[in-house]
Write a sequence for this structure.
């Protein structure tokens, strides 16, 4: 699996709930990448009810210099969220910049199936998901 992740920028680990996909990444693939001699950062994204906000937070953490005050962090988060929503490919571009700095990132999307729960467009008369 480690070789596959190196070859393919997007690799899916798919299976029914409860079969150990998360454990496979956390206890197997992640540690194997970290001991490979390359610089790997393992980042877990739990999309929740606001998957783009969660993604913006992860990308911001990976690409922003530390030491920013809270106000500046909020502004940068809003800008990141805007770019993710409006620029297809933006996340990939940012991850490639990390790789150019010799930092490889495994972005592990955990509990992805939960984020698709609210992804359908309500039909007339259907209730919207709670906010």
């Amino acid at each position: 699996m480690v070789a596959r992740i190196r070859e393919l920028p997007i690799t899916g680990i798919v299976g029914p709930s409860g079969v150990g996909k998360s454990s496979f990444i956390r206890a197997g693939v992640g540690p194997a990448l970290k001991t490979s001699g390359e610089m790997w950062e393992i980042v877990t994204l739990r999309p929740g009810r606001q998957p783009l906000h969660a993604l913006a937070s992860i990308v911001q953490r990976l690409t922003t210099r530390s030491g920013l005050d809270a106000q500046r962090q909020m502004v940068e988060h809003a800008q990141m969220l805007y770019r993710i929503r409006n620029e297809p490919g933006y996340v990939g571009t940012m991850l490639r910049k990390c790789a150019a700095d010799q930092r490889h990132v495994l972005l592990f999307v955990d509990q992805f199936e939960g984020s698709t729960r609210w992804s359908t467009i309500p039909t007339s008369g259907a209730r919207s998901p709670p906010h």
The longest helix spans residues 70-86. DSSP finds six helices and two strands in the chain. Strands lie at 40-45, 104-109. The helical segments are 2-7, 21-34, 51-63, 70-86, 90-100, 112-115.
